[in-house]
Amino acid sequence: MKVVKGGKNLSFSALVAVGNENGWVGIGKGKAREVPPAIKKGAKDAKKNIIEVPLRDTTIPHLIKGVHCGGEVILRPASKGTGIIAGGAVRIIMELAGVKDVLTKSVGSNNPLSVANATIDALKKLKSPEKLSKLRDKDKDLIWQ
After folding, report:
1. Structure confidence by residue, pLDDT tens digits, 37-64
2. How far is the C-alpha of 62 from the C-alpha of 64, rounded, in Å?
3. Mean of the pLDDT values across residues 9-36?
4. Average pLDDT value for residue range 117-138
5. Which of 48, 55, 105, 115 has the most neighbouring CB atoms within 10 Å?
6. DSSP 136
7. pLDDT tens, position by position, 57-96
8. What SS3 class is residue 99?
9. Contact criterion met (CB below 8 Å) for 45 and 61
10. Cα-Cα-Cα-Cα dihedral of 113, 114, 115, 116, to 10°?
11. Can you list the positions of beta strands (E) in 1-129?
12. Would you say the C-alpha torsion 112, 85, 120, 106 has a positive or negative sign?
């Protein structure tokens, strides 16, 4: 809400996450004077910012940390059947990315936008088994033993 000469100007912000639950996820932010247009703008922005998430069966390939402003998110791989141990924005993003087993910890700011961006930052840093094997000049099967 912004107070101007003519009165109060209301506006709504929407943080929207999209994903196919199979390794693709994105987040976006929309702002408008009404809620539905804000959500629509957020969804459009989220579709522009989709990233691919390398998965190892039902979890992430390795431990990773993502940072955005004051928010910090630590993602750890978990064994099958653990589930998504996360809250708020991290849980939603993990579900939409198709990650079924992961341990997470959010440190610092608990602002949903900072936490969501930190989660996306961490997911961007993940390396697939193929990429890791190429970097280390080792067979893909040897890396995941």
Report:
1. 999 999 999 999 999 999 988 999 889 9
2. 6
3. 94
4. 86
5. 115
6. H
7. 899 988 999 999 999 999 999 999 999 999 889 999 999 9
8. coil
9. no
10. 50
11. 2-4, 7-9, 12-19, 24-32, 51-52, 64-68, 71-77, 84-85, 102-108
12. positive
DSSP 124: H
Identify the pLDDT of residue 144. 61
Tokens of 81: 């059947």
Residues 93 and 118: beta-carbon distance below 8 Å: no
> What tokens were used for 123?
């997911």
Helical packing angle, 88-97 and 112-125, nearest 10°: 40
Rounded distance between C-alpha atoms, residue 57 and residue 60, angstroms: 8
Q: How is residue 43 written in tokens?
A: 């969804």
Residue 103 backbone phi and psi in degrees, to 5: -110, 130
Question: Does residue 136 surpass a pLDDT of 80?
Answer: no
Q: At 29, give phi and psi (nearest 5°).
A: -125, 135
Domain 2-133: which CATH number of 1.10.238.10, 3.30.43.10, 3.30.230.10, 3.30.70.790: 3.30.230.10
The DSSP secondary-structure symbol of 33 reads S
pLDDT at 139: 74
